[in-house]
Amino acid sequence: MNLIELITGRAGNQVAAQAENKFGIEKNQIIALLAVAAPLVISYLRKKSQDNPAEAEALNNALDKDHDGSILDDPTQIENRQQEGGSILDHIFGGHKTQVENQLSQNTGISIDKIGPVLAMLAPLIMGYIGKQKNAGGVTSGGLGDLLGGILGNAQNKARAEPSNPLNDILGNVLGGAGNKQGNPLNDLLGGVLGGQPQGGLGGILGNILGGKK
Questions:
Q1: CA-to-CA distance for 81 and 128, rounded, in angstroms?
Q2: Domain boundaries, position 16
Q3: The whole model's pTM is what?
Q4: How far, in Å, CA of 179 to CA of 176, rounded?
Q5: In Å, how far from its chain's centre is CA 119?
Q6: pLDDT in tens, 84-137
Q7: What's the domain count of the chain?
């Protein structure tokens, strides 16, 4: 399973449906948020793992202990793990969490009072996906940076290869990317976020976080 399949597949859709029922938010808005939040979280974890061996070891231990990927087979776990998801995001984004939430709220149309709780529901799903990829590849702490980079690279490559991906329609409607010249909002979004280029402000989030700006 690649990252786009996580977002558009059974697990992503089931979690989006749960969040829709709980918060009264359109399902497509949740899927669009997951499409943005997943590469953002993975990019930041990659940076931390590459820069600090202790962070890599801590992430490796957390994945082994709490994120084996079983949540992908049973997404009903999500609601019971929302508090855990909030703690995950606190650790990942630290002092930038409010900035991230504000920008994601602006881009997805999810109100600022709901964006945090919804992200907290999505975080364990993203971590479970990483854990499943780690286990499948037999990766240890020293290989996490490469693993996470590979996940992101594969997502970009798949977006380029499949401009008709149904996620493009969702992102086009929710994030306003339908009128881009390439006709592929997903590819533009991933390129913006992962490349740190301003794409509706989303690339700027990553640039500021990884660049250490306040």
A1: 12
A2: 3-211
A3: 0.84
A4: 7
A5: 9
A6: 999 999 999 888 899 889 888 888 889 999 999 999 999 999 999 999 999 999
A7: 1
In this structure, what token pair is assigned to residue 204? 């700027």
Round to whole Å and give the CA distance between 131 and 34.
Answer: 17
200 is written with which tokens?
């509706």
Say how far apart CA 195 and CA 104 lie, in whole Å: 17
Q: Which residues contact 162 (CB under 8 A, 6 or more apart)?
A: 4
Residue 33 to residue 193: CA distance in whole angstroms? 13
**Token reading at 9:** 């597949």
**Residue (of 26, 126, 30, 11) closest to 76 by Cα position:** 11
Question: Which residue reads 């009128």 in tokens?
Answer: 179
Q: Angle 27-51/202-211 helices, nearest 10 degrees?
A: 20
pLDDT in tens, 155-186: 877 777 777 777 777 777 776 643 344 457 76
